[in-house]
């Protein structure tokens, strides 16, 4: 019932009694299906830019089109853009598989979220306004520094991609009296419609696929964020009001001294 998959095993015991065993295989079948869907989606995402690259290269190899300098430069620009799309996708796929491989290891670097938020925000400041506020000088968690950096980068990158490209983006770090720290990344962009909101952390899910692709998105950013936060025994939430902005928050356990 309800898509369940069962295996039935029946043994005849001494004396003629029968032992019937029922095994619920639903979980295993659904994991296998989601794995197959993932591979199919990833292949599809790679195939499109690759087909474009091949198409443009073949056109350039044609002496008539290849001889036109302006056309050549335009096509080379497109080839570079498509190649960069494949590069971003491969790098996100590798991040996902690394997170998966490390999922049973407890991350143990001392990561100060106040310092890291300032550092990551600083990397974006050449092109955008990214404000950082904190209610404490330090908020240290036991974590994987590279992964937490990736979380902040993905969230700020999204805030600029789907908000206003020049910002402002507001990052806040609040360590509570309890053992938790709350990090929020808020933008004043277009927001996410309620029908998309519950699904945006799924792999390859996008509210607007062509917009995401044009902005260089892979559809994997938020699923990477969610995986990393779960590996750190934290919580990830998104709240959004269409027309006025999106707020992504991470709750992470502070390091116990
Ligand atoms: P992508 O590579 O497409 O940005 P993500 O997993 O990072 O993939 O995000 C999934 C989708 O969620 C995006 O395609 C976009 O539709 C939506 N989204 C994510 N962050 C924001 C935001 N700050 N404002 C509006 N929409 C967002």
TrEMBL record:
It catalyses: ATP + protein L-histidine = ADP + protein N-phospho-L-histidine. One of its GO terms (molecular function) is phosphorelay sensor kinase activity. Residues 41-256 form the Histidine kinase domain. Its EC number is 2.7.13.3. One of its GO terms (cellular component) is plasma membrane. The keyword Phosphoprotein applies. The keyword Chloroplast does not apply. GO terms for biological process: cellular response to phosphate starvation. Keywords: Kinase, Membrane, Phosphoprotein, Transferase, Two-component regulatory system. It comes from the Bacteria. This is histidine kinase. It comes from Novosphingobium aureum. The chain holds residues 72 to 328 of 328 of the full protein.
